[in-house]
Design a protein that fits this description.
This protein has about 230 residues and is mainly alpha-helical. About 65% of the residues lie in helices and about 5% in strands. The longest helix is centred in the middle third of the chain and has 32 residues. About 40% of the residues are buried.
């Protein structure tokens, strides 16, 4: 019996999924179909643009401060890759670990809405999600759902520690790390809300103790990042 990601020798394997009649070669849990990679890149690009516009103060800010917009574009790219793309890949990896076909599907309507709202200087995004094909148990579904916010929590804590380390030496660098940390914490915390289809609703159904521990950590770093706003 081969592991969930396939035969290590690269032989044919049929998986339960949208392409059930198509043989695929799975050598890694990080297998992406060409269509999935395309949708992940498009979602990341549009979200990066939306974040950069919102960071600059909307369309008026972009016109008045094009230099700031270009800097924010770099910052937004790193923020989106860590807080969004790695969040979704966390879900995907966990699902594949349990033997399910999982792939990211974007929501073009949600992405265009995020771009439209960013023009006013705000941000609301529903970029899409990892779709899992199969019937995971309550425990599996809870772990898969927890994987995304856990990625945000780990990255948020990591970048916050870098912010704290640079706070007394370089304000611009510290501010950069603060923004990346804050976005990860805020996005992870939002996904912990126990309302379907957010991750929190599936985590709390699986394990209340796990939900409470994750919630407490997010609450702690939410407060820390918010209070440290005046230090950046």
């Amino acid at each position: 019996m081969y592991p969930p990601w396939g035969d290590p020798f690269g032989r044919e394997e049929y998986l339960i999924g949208p392409y059930i009649s198509t043989p695929v070669y799975r050598r890694s849990p990080f297998h992406f179909t060409p269509q999935e990679l395309h949708e992940l890149k498009v979602a990341t690009a549009i979200l990066t643009l939306a974040f950069a516009i919102a960071f600059t103060g909307g369309v008026i800010g972009v016109m008045l401060r094009p230099g700031a917009f270009l800097l924010n574009l770099v910052l937004a790219a790193i923020a989106v890759i860590t807080a969004f793309a790695l969040h979704e890949i966390g879900h995907k990896y966990a699902a594949i670990h349990f033997g399910y076909w999982a792939e990211f599907n974007y929501s073009m309507g949600g992405l265009l809405l995020a771009l439209l709202v960013s023009l006013a200087g705000f941000l609301f995004a529903a970029p899409g999600a990892v779709v899992i094909y199969g019937y995971p148990t309550k425990r599996e579904n809870g772990i898969i759902s927890a994987a995304g916010p856990t990625v945000n929590l780990i990255l948020g804590m990591f970048f916050f520690s870098l912010f704290a380390g640079f706070a007394f030496f370089s304000r611009p660098i510290a501010s950069f790390f603060w923004v990346i940390s804050t976005i990860n914490i805020y996005i992870g915390a939002f996904n912990m809300i126990p309302i379907p289809p957010l991750d929190g609703s599936k985590i709390i159904t699986w394990s209340l103790p796990v939900y409470l521990i994750m919630g407490a950590l997010f609450a702690l770093f939410f407060v820390l990042t918010t209070m440290s706003f005046y230090a950046v």
